[in-house]
Amino acid sequence: MLCGNINCTKPQKAVATGLKSHQISRRRKHSTHPLQRLLEYGHQYRKQIWLATTYSILNKFFDLAPPGLIGVAVDVVVKQQDSIIAQLGVRDVFGQFLIISFLTVIIWILESVFEYAYARLWRNLAQNIQHDLRLDAYKHLQELELAYFEERSTGGLMSILSDDINQLERFLDGGANDIIQVSATVLIIGAAFFILAPSVAWMALSPMPFILWGSFAYQRLLAPRYADVREKVGFLNSRLSNNISGITTIKSFTAETYEASRLELDSEAYRRSNSKAITLSAAFVPLIRMLILVGFTALLLYGGMAAVSGQMSVGTYSVLVFLIQRLLWPLTRLGETFDQYQRAMASTNRVMNLLDTPIAIHTGNVALPVNEVRGEVQFKNVYFAYKDRFPVIKNLSLDIPAGKTIAIVGSTGSGKSTLVKLLLRLYEVQTGNITLDGIDLQSLNLQDLRRCIGLVSQDVFLFHGTVAENIAYGSFETTEQEIITAAKIAEAHEFIVELPEGYETIVGERGQKLSGGQRQRIAIARAVLKNPPILILDEATSAVDNETEAAIQRSLERITVDRTTIAIAHRLSTIRNADCIYVMEHGKLVESGTHEQLLEKDGIYSGLWRVQSGLR
């Protein structure tokens, strides 16, 4: 029997579960340093990272070699036939300078070659990781349940996918190389000092432990400040995204000044957060300079006296003076590099936390080709509540025979649209189960399930593109003639050909260049082209005029033949010919029957009909 008994038993309590292993893993990942998480993510580029690091170190080695050649040249000028090169057998001064010139050319060429090599590798690495990370984050985002998006702002998610990943790319493009080269500079110059002049090396390099300690201390202080900066920019982007999407509402309620003031508050919060981070990071370089001053002064004084007394050669003294200068400038940039590093690590945390978000709705392993679907749907003792809210569906049981049209009516908030979301597995039932052709939805391949369902909702979403592209959305291999045929069935062809470019007319973002009725008919054409065994009409005619409604009803009558159809409606006139009508109240089915049977019962449906038909 099509309209069977309605089962509404007491709700069953959801079974409590222990801590899932993926939750433990997720917590462990959150405690891991963001740089380690980034390296683990980019493991496939490990060879490229090591190669780029090697080229950076070699470039710095050859970059630091010219001061050594200057020292050798000074030694030739001062000692001439007794110079270091002369001791190797070349006593002619001109010949010695030729050797120095030749070595200079070789060193400069090698420095340039390795600079090109590391720059090319680091930049390509930055682009590759940025590309992969954005794609992986977006793909993972698509797999998350609908509740995740309803609890977060679009602008905040856009900030992660765009701004945070770009921030990471900027660091990999230059900051990573800067850190490696500063480290190489300290090691190479430190080794050179201890080899050339161990008596003054400890004086010149004594500030280094304090510089390194101060750098790590600053890093710890800056980390929470930049995490706050990334959070504030997320709020700001969210505000901008919402306001641009709702510009019509803002204008119609003359709320421009109000929204500008709210944006000013968010922008001011972002500015203040950045200012706090800048106040701390800006002090880094001056402090580093003061520490380096100690080593530089010690070298000038004690090294100079050693050169005068003959304990150190003039050439060696020249080399040390040049090297301490070469150490100075990279260390003064260390503050800017750490600033960039902390911004990148804050962004990395946000992106990785998104990637670590567990997927709540997993696909089943039972395949169900569309051409094999009969369309019989059963809800069995289904219970569902949104997070932190009262139950919306309370142990509901409902049989929908294959090939029939059933309608669900009821007051706002009664749970009608929630049934659609559960059938599409946009949400998961808490107890009970839903079956399609006798197969539990959780066992079905998720893509197979959604391929066999066509949804036409009240809030039609059209993508920025042509009319033809929007009709063919989801049926990407279709032909032009099939698109036109679907548009004719949906009674959309006539208005489409009158558009400036016909089927190639750009509809604008969310279809804003079209009227509500035109968008609705394009959505129906999209469903027709998909040709699903199950069709869901969720308030498909509630926002259109009577003439458009009549046109849509004619097209719906054609496409619902021999197809399982679930129609959710407020306008009872649109579903009066359904094979069975169910009335929902507070998450339960309270009435069922045909239009005539429900009028005879003189219940909720009958009362709604009298109100809408003007009988009372």
Describe this structure in words.
There is one protein chain. The protein is of the alpha/beta class and 616 residues long. Helices cover 61% and strands 10% of the residues. The protein contains 23 helices and ten strands. Strands 6-7-8-3-9-10 form a six-stranded mixed β-sheet, with helices on both faces. Helix 9 (208-245) packs antiparallel against helix 12 (284-308).
CATH topology of the largest domain: ABC transporter transmembrane region fold
Count of all domains: 3
Q: What's the overall geometry?
A: elongated
Number of helical elements: 23
Residue fraction in strands:
5-15%
Oligomer: single chain
CATH class membership of the largest domain: Mainly Alpha
What radius of gyration results from the CA coordinates?
36 Å
Mean pLDDT across residues: 80
* Spatial separation of the terminal alpha carbons: 33 Å
The biggest sheet amounts to: 6 strands, mixed
CATH fourth-tier homologous superfamily of the largest domain: ABC transporter type 1, transmembrane domain
Major sheet strand order: 6-7-8-3-9-10
Q: What CATH architecture of the largest domain do you see?
A: Up-down Bundle
Percent helix, as a range, is 55-70%
Q: How many strands?
A: 10
| Poorly predicted ranges | 7-28
Judged by helices, strands and strand pairing, the structural class is alpha/beta
Outline of the structure:
The protein is of the alpha/beta class and 616 residues long. It folds into 3 domains: 322 residues, ABC transporter transmembrane region fold, CATH 1.20.1560.10; 173 residues, P-loop containing nucleotide triphosphate hydrolases (Rossmann fold), CATH 3.40.50; 70 residues, P-loop containing nucleotide triphosphate hydrolases (Rossmann fold, 3-Layer(aba) Sandwich), CATH 3.40.50. It contains 23 helices and 10 strands.
